[in-house]
């Protein structure tokens, strides 16, 4: 041990131990909570052990619309290919039953005694091409049906009906997937974080919402729900308990005019689930606030919905959003680079209940913030003065030309006295 201590200095050993501890992964004391609604609005929910799978086939159109794009395109392609192959087989059987495939009839095709059901159909390949021409209504003119076979006319009618049904269903499905309402919600944005601050003497929960498009959302309304795990007095555990909380909106219809980014405010009062939560208790709360914005798209008239959520770690206590709307040359300009920026403001750390019971807490908090602001201003002014004095002194030292020479004035009496002495 003595040899090792003499070879490896103690400072190096301590530095190496510290580096090894930093490399080890840190274990969180609290596991990350699963979100009910993701930040992009997707529902974080997995359906398992569904026994009645046939219910999805009863509403086949909605099932096709809800599928992913790759599955929809595969079904779209296979539906046409299968129908073409099915009716190609039927046309081939009609031609085979009528004797159009017999090579002995090739020399008599132009005679008046024998007429084929479909001209120029002598193999399965030609029957497949004729099936595509019939269903897609191309009609190149080389192959055509005659009035010789009534069965062929029946097959023609049946294929036209089936083709129209496939076109209507598949094209309608693709149109609905491209025109879904949640596509418009991609340009409706929410702030990444929410804040709790004092507004009009009340603690308020606030977040910002904006629309990136010029086309407006008509009759837009905002709803907020709190999702948390609760236990009833009877002992029943409710894992997802939803509670609606009111939104502070001066308009009675609760509609907002979303022409520019707005700060949506919820006053934390007696009706709010956040009434008993303080700043220290917020980090320990297992809750999620879901925000839902609904409205009608101006261009299409389709109702759209945008969603997001905020958990306890994403709520900043004692912060406020910075203003982003300015007037420039007669036009209101919005700076989206500051959309989620916040500044720290004075706010009591107690709950809204304590603030209602003791209003003096708010006054004391504001007075302390005012004193701290004045002290910070004094420190800044003193620092600026000291910096200016230091700069002037340094400039005088570095530039000797700026130093003013001392001038000594000698009076006549002084000169006489000096000479006498």
TrEMBL record:
Membrane-crossing ranges are 73-94, 151-175
Start-end of Low complexity biased regions: 384-397
Domain of life the protein comes from: Eukaryota
Subcellular compartments: Membrane
Q: Which GO terms describe its cellular component?
A: monoatomic ion channel complex; plasma membrane
Q: Which GO terms describe its molecular function?
A: ATP-activated inward rectifier potassium channel activity
InterPro entries assigned to the protein according to its UniProt record, in alphabetical order: Ig_E-set, IRK_C, K_chnl_inward-rec_Kir, K_chnl_inward-rec_Kir6.1, K_chnl_inward-rec_Kir_cyto, Kir_TM
Q: Which GO terms describe its biological process?
A: potassium ion import across plasma membrane; regulation of monoatomic ion transmembrane transport
Q: Which residues form the Potassium channel inwardly rectifying transmembrane domain?
A: 37-180
Name of a matching Pfam family: IRK
Q: Principal place where this protein is found?
A: membrane
Topology term for the membrane:
Multi-pass membrane protein
Q: Where is this site: Role in the control of polyamine-mediated channel gating and in the blocking by intracellular magnesium?
A: 167
Q: Does the keyword Transmembrane helix apply?
A: yes
Q: Where is this region: Disordered?
A: 372-403
Q: Where is the Inward rectifier potassium channel C-terminal domain?
A: 188-358
Catalysed conversion reaction: K(+)(in) = K(+)(out)
Record's keyword terms, sorted:
Ion channel, Ion transport, Membrane, Phosphoprotein, Potassium, Potassium transport, Transmembrane, Transmembrane helix, Transport, Voltage-gated channel
Family the entry assigns: Belongs to the inward rectifier-type potassium channel (TC 1.A.2.1) family.
What name has this protein been given in UniProt? KCNJ8 protein
Q: Which organism is it from?
A: Psophia crepitans
């Amino acid at each position: 041990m003595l040899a090792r201590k003499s070879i490896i200095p103690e400072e190096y050993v301590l530095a190496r131990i510290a580096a090894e501890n930093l490399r080890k992964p840190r274990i969180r004391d609290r596991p990350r909570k699963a979100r009910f609604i993701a930040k992009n609005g997707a529902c974080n929910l997995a359906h398992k052990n569904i026994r009645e799978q046939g219910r999805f086939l009863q509403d086949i159109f909605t099932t096709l619309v809800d599928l992913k794009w790759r599955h929809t395109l595969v079904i779209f392609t296979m539906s046409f290919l299968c129908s073409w192959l099915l009716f190609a087989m039927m046309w081939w059987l009609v031609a085979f039953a009528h004797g159009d495939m017999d090579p002995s009839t090739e020399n008599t095709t132009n005679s008046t005694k024998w007429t084929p059901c479909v001209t120029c159909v002598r193999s399965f390949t030609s029957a497949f091409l004729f099936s595509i021409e019939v269903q897609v209504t191309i009609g190149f003119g080389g192959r055509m049906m005659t009035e010789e076979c009534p069965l062929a006319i029946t097959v023609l009618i049946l294929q036209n009906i089936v083709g129209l049904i496939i076109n209507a269903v598949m094209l309608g499905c693709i149109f609905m997937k491209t025109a879904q309402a949640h596509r418009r919600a991609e340009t409706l944005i929410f702030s990444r974080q929410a804040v709790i601050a004092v507004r009009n003497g009340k603690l308020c929960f606030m977040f910002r919402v904006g629309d990136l498009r010029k086309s407006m959302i008509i009759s837009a309304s905002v709803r907020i729900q709190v999702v948390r795990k609760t236990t009833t007095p009877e002992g029943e555990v409710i894992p997802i308990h939803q509670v609606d909380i009111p939104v502070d909106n001066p308009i009675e219809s609760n509609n907002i005019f979303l022409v520019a980014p707005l700060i949506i405010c919820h006053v934390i009062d007696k009706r709010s689930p956040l009434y008993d939560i303080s700043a220290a208790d917020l980090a320990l709360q297992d809750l999620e606030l879901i925000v839902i914005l609904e409205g009608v798209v101006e261009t299409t008239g389709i109702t759209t919905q945008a969603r997001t959520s905020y958990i306890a770690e994403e709520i900043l206590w004692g912060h406020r959003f910075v203003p982003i709307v300015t007037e420039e040359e007669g036009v209101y300009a919005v700076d989206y680079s500051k959309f989620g920026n916040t500044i720290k403001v004075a706010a009591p750390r107690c709950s809204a209940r304590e603030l209602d019971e003791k209003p003096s807490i708010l006054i004391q908090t504001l007075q302390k913030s005012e004193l701290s602001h004045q002290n910070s201003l004094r420190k800044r002014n003193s620092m600026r003065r000291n910096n200016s004095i230091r700069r002037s002194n340094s400039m005088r030292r570095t530039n000797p030309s700026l130093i003013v020479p001392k001038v000594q004035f000698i009076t006549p009496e002084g000169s006489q006295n000096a000479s006498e002495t």
